[in-house]
Amino acid sequence: MTTTVLAKRSVGTDIINYDAIVIGAGFGGIYMLKKLRDELGLKVRAFDKAGGIGGTWFWNRYPGALSDTESFVYCFSWDRELCQEWNITTRYLTQPQILSYLNHVVDRHDLRRDIQLETGITSAVFDEQSCCWLVIADDGHQYSAKYLVTALGLLSATNVPKIKGLDQFEGNMYHTAKWPADAVLEGKRVGVIGTGSTGCQVITAIAPTVGHLTVFQRSAQYTVPVGNGPVNREYVDEIKRNYDTIWKEVRSSRLAFGFKESDIPTMSVDAAERKAIFQRAWDNGGGFRYMFQTFSDIATNEEANIAAQDFVREKIAEIVKDPETARKLMPRDLYAKRPLCDSGYYATFNRDNVSLVDVKANPIEEITAKGIRTADGVEHELDVLIFATGFDAVDGNYKRIDIRGRNNVSMKDHWAEGPSSYLSVATSQFPNMFMILGPNGPFTNLPPTIETEVEWVSDLIGFMEENELACVEADAHSEHEWGVTCQKIADQTLFAKTDSWIFGANIPGKTNKVYFYMGGLGAFSEELTAVKNDCYRGFKFTGTSVMDKHVQQALH
Ligand code: FAD
Ligand code: NA7
């Protein structure tokens, strides 16, 4: 194989050579390994710093952790037999269910032998002479490969806010995405900072068993019922019968959530009908369904957005008994973050053992040995403090590895003004490196997007191998243009007017810019296909004398 020869030329004997190295063993890394090893016949090693496979679902073991994509589309579509064999029992999947599914996939395809766990990658340097990557791991070894695929996760690098006194706390502190197996909450005085998707889940799940729960809320949230529950045999059979159609529709839809997105403008129906449509969505459940299946313009039109907001505020007023608590829980901002859904979040605040602190009005001053002191001078005493404070999303894990491309340029410098990519999968100056869910990829239910990206990258690598090409690199101009496209699309949405991790706005000092392509998976896939069919437009191939003739022939 050309790759191994290239690698051996430039590296010493103590370097272990592969054709491809994959970092990450979540949905992305697992499928990438499968494609490269079993379809292209490459020698591949996947690494993960985690103690098990599963990525997100290995790490996020907090009580209540649940995917809010419905079960039938929160899985791989590429294993058609497994789609028929795997029996879903609930409308949504809990963290243990997803972890068990991914472990099953790995064993079923005998992938485990090529996955090295508990191994963090600390640096990756591109060698221009050999067109190979030299990768250093925290197991003390160096590895080299022609191709480097980063499937590092876009909601993976944890965010712990730098609150004064963090190290003074004498109780236990946990981040939800690094949840320890031995965490004990029963009967304890527990504090939760953060009320995003994770916060809503953990708060609702632990409230019945803790002694007292204090919720420190900075932003009030719009959330609707998730509508989870058992599914019957007919439901499962129907899905299995229709899987081909379902996947086809998912892959050509905008959000890939497995439902038809509405094309009815909110104000095109009268107030009574609007309310009935919102009520049906509320009863049926699902955050994305509420935002995108009811009406077509909630995420783009302010009047429509306010109608959707009003309905949720009315529900809060109905559900929450104490008017002051209800007032604090009522969001007044645009409804334009990733839509949330829950299993009884607002009602949780009717419990006697739950209190709500509005830290926007009454900020956290410091963490003390005993708990949290707020600006009003109150010290909230706690045994356990939970950070449900989210992630350094999208590029967080990239900043935690010393990645160096052409001319030794570091990824940190290359992305000094925020991360960018060409088509989410590549970035200029980093040849032969491919990202799964890199910046400016589709904002969707993620497994179908992951599959789309993995398959495209695999095709490109296959093409290079077939044509004995040494090097491929995204062109800087194309990358810039893709960023402009993403920004233009995002600017048409209300999401761009709201601070959240989707725009890097959740972390002080992080560049606030577009991090996603909001044009939908269908349009994204079409663009990928067009680029491929147009001789991989926007990519430069180098490093083989036969390139021009062969490439042109192969591409046409
Ligand atoms: P991940 O699953 O994040 O895997 C990345 C892996 O890379 C991790 O295991 C990490 O340890 C490893 N890694 C990173 N850096 C290094 C390094 N330097 N060395 C070695 N290993 C490294 N998406 C949806 O579409 N629907 C949902 O309902 C949904 N719910 C979610 C709920 C939670 C609580 C969270 C946190 C995320 C959720 N997501 C959801 C997003 C979810 O992350 C994706 O759906 C999907 O699991 C991402 O898979 P991945 O393989 O790209 O990344
Ligand atoms: P999110 O959505 O980023 O939510 C984090 C929450 O933590 C949010 O309520 C933040 O308030 C809050 N936060 C963050 N820093 C602070 C400080 N310093 N003080 C008080 N409160 C703070 O992360 P999630 O894990 O819930 O969800 C991320 C995605 O992962 C989600 O969409 C799912 O797909 C899974 P803020 O809103 O910024 O005021």
Automatic annotation (TrEMBL):
Pfam families: FMO-like
One term of GO molecular function: N,N-dimethylaniline monooxygenase activity
InterPro entries given in the database record: FAD-binding_Monooxygenases, FAD/NAD-bd_sf, Flavin_mOase-like
Keywords: FAD, Flavoprotein, NADP, Oxidoreductase
Protein name in the entry: Cation diffusion facilitator CzcD-associated flavoprotein CzcO
Species whose genome carries this gene: Pseudomonas duriflava
